[in-house]
Every structure is written in structure tokens, then in C-alpha cells.
Amino acid sequence: MHVVVDHFDLYWHGFAKTLGICLWAGTGALVLGTLLAAFRVSPVPPLRWTGTTYVTLVRNCPLTVVLFFVAFGLPEVGIRQSYYRFAVAGLIVYTAAFVCEAVRSGINAIPNGQAEAARAIGLRFGQSLRFVVLPQALRSVVPPLGSVIIAMVKNSAIVGAFGVGGELYNVGQTLTGAQGFAALPVLTGVVLGYLAITIPAGLSLQLLERKVALSR
Fold first, then answer.
1. Which of 71, 130, 159, 166 has the maximal Cβ count within 10 Å?
2. Could you tell me if 185 and 3 are in contact, meaning their C-beta atoms sit under 8 angstroms apart?
């Protein structure tokens, strides 16, 4: 394990960059996924079709295909950004489809009487969804949303193959490939870095789940 100690600054930089990718991607996926869930339950047919088509296409594509499309396809149509931004965008696009289905399941679990009561007091669909249905739905989907976000953190390792550079995956490649260190201790450090993200995230979600359960 001396390689981890001797190159702790490199691991720390990789950890910080990976954490940044996960925070940006997680936030974007939650926002986009919730919007897509609203589309899927909308009374407006074009919005429903848009949400359904998005989820069907993205959920049935491998993450690597999505990342290839974002990182190498978009520049061909004139959209040029850093690989870091492309990686975040790819994770958002992919993870949002799963967030959408988790949120939609929560919306469908809310009794119809809630929406009917909202309409009875004059709220439009968007207002009833925002102020009545979504707050209740999001409370009930904390566990599945937590699983989606933790899966996204693990999926973030794949972005290292797309030239982002500096994150944990790249640290492992640099130390084993360029500098010739043994793979086992190097990858152990990489695994510990990911565990330092996923375990606190899981514990935080458990606390949030308990808090939500008590407040209901």
C-alpha cells in the first residue's frame, strides 16, 4: 500500500475531480429526470410522447454508447466542449432516464384524490404537480433515487476512458500503465476512493429516508 501513501496527492486530486463530476451529474440528472417524469404524466400528448421516447431510447442504450455519442458525436455538429463537460453531460443524459422512472412511480403512487382536490381549488396541472403531488412523490422515492445516484457514482468510472483525465480511473491507469506500479495496490487505492464517495452517500440517504418516514 506504499504506492497509495506515496502518491496520496494524486489520489486526492482524482477523488476531488470524481466527486465534482458526481455532484454536477447527480444534480443535473435529478432536475432533468424530474422534468421528464412531469412530461410522462402530463395531459399534453406531445409532452408524454417526448418523455416516453427519451426514456425508452436512453434506458435501452449502454452508457458507453451514450458517452461516445456525446463526446464524439456532438463535436461533428459543431458542439465543442471539454471532455469534462461532455462526461458530465453524458452521465446526466443517461441517469436522468432512471431518475424519471423512479419519480414517475412515486407520482403514480399518490392517490388520485390529491390531484382532484388540487383541481377543485383551482390549481392548474403544473401547479398541482409542483405544490401537491411532487412533494409527496419525492418523499416516497428516496430509496430508489438513492440507488440510482449510487449507481451513477460507480458509472462515473467509465468516463475516464473518454479523455477526462485526472479522475480516479485515470489515476489508476497512470500509475499502472505509465509508471509501472503493480495493479493490485493501485486499484485498491482507486476502490477506496470510490468507497469514500458511495458509503457516505448511502448513509446520508438512509438518514434522509428515516427523516422522511418520520415526517409523514
1. 159
2. yes
Pick from 163, 171, 108, 156: which is nearest to 136 by CA? 108
Mean pLDDT of all residues in the chain? 84
**Distance separating alpha carbons of residues 137 and 125, to the nearest angstrom:** 15
Counting the structural domains of the chain, the total is: 1
User: For the chain, how long is the longest CA-to-CA vector?
Assistant: 69
Contact status, residue 48 vs residue 40, Cβ threshold 8 Å: yes
For 70-125, the DSSP string reads IIIIGGGGT----HHHHHHHHHHHHHHHHHHHHHHHHHHHS-HHHHHHHHHTT--H
Q: Give pTM, 2 decimals.
A: 0.88
> CATH number of the domain that 95 lies in?
1.10.3720.10
- Indicate left, alpha or beta for 163 from its phi (over 0: left) and psi (-120 to 50: alpha): left
pLDDT in tens, 186-196: 888 888 888 99
- Whether pLDDT at 178 is above 70: no
